[in-house]
Amino acid sequence: MQKQIVHSNYNLASPPEIGEVLADAAAYLPSKHLPEIRNAYEFAFSQHKGQLRESGHPYITHPLAVAQIVTRLELDHSAISAALLHDVQEDCGVPNKEIAELFGDDVANLVEGLTKLDNLPAHFGDNPDSQNSVQAQNYRKIFLAMAEDIRVVLVKLCDRLHNMRTLEPLPPEKQIRVARETMEIYAPLATRLGIWQLKWELEDLAFRYLYPERYQEIAKRLELTRDAREKYISE
């Protein structure tokens, strides 16, 4: 059974540690795969050393968080390692050949696939009109066609989820752009693959940034409903 993925109140100040990722992985993977995952973490840590996210946190917190989401989906050890390594090729200049030598062709191919998807441009206007809808549909088709291994798409969805959870430090215009991409591309992909927890949280986070006033109105109504329900139960 997959563990809970949704964390609507994700704590930016308390990113996961590698021990948590390994513990989650150990719950469903043979122990022989755990050293590879730790080695992938240590390599990623060394490559990202000194790099920071826009939040000011060490960059390694991002691949760690992505790897944790991947374990919650109970993907295999190669996918977890690829999640930890998914930015070392593009952001650190590590050749794919080196990744293959250190972690095998399977992991290297996943990292290569993720890097290709990162370089696939996606730009949408401010309004979700019919033209944008067609563009997004075409993009999703290209996205799936480029990802020869479905694990690439799954890890990419986990990557986008963590980016959405940590979107707040970015400039408003970038928040809107990323939220629009999430609503138009990534949430529908999660729907198509039947990863409902990812779909729900991606949509929730995107809606929060695209329609903040409406989001707060709905949240307030839900809170009032919850308070009324709890009061009724207590009586």
From TrEMBL:
InterPro entries: HD/PDEase_dom (IPR003607), HD_domain (IPR006674). GO terms for cellular component: plasma membrane. Transmembrane segments: none annotated. It holds the Pfam family HD_4. Residues 59-164 form the HD domain. Belongs to the RelA/SpoT family. This is HD domain-containing protein. It comes from marine metagenome.
